[in-house]
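Encode chain A's predicted structure.
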Amino acid sequence: MTEKRGPRRRDRHGRGLRGPLAPSHVPLARSRSERFDDLVLDAVDRLRPQWGRQLSVVEFAVEEVPPLSELGDGPRIGADPIPFGRAVAAQGAEPASVVIYRRPLEARARDRDALGALVHDTVVEQVASLLGLSPETVDPGYDDRR
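Encoded structure for chain A:
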């Protein structure tokens, strides 16, 4: 004797349907990836006063992890085995782009302030690579944090 049951619901114990934990206008409601995106945008905005014209043709993106093609096989001397970002020069109709990898940076940072500084340094390094300049030229305070 089998009864046909309706679809399963989240309200199994009669406590009501689940809702958001916090209103959408408070910082708690933002996901970790949204907060990381904000850190990247803040880092880019800090560079815009001096490099706005050059950065106006650059697309910035965030990816979770680097693709396998960017990971080395085994230890490398003098380089971090997991990249924090990449810069791609403009090719034909494709604009220049800077991609920042979220998970490696979050794993390296000990707290939110350290993550913000690490994201800013990574953006500065990638923009410097794209423009063919040193990171100290792109952001004079870069060397002070090292």
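The first strand starts at residue 58 and ends at 63.
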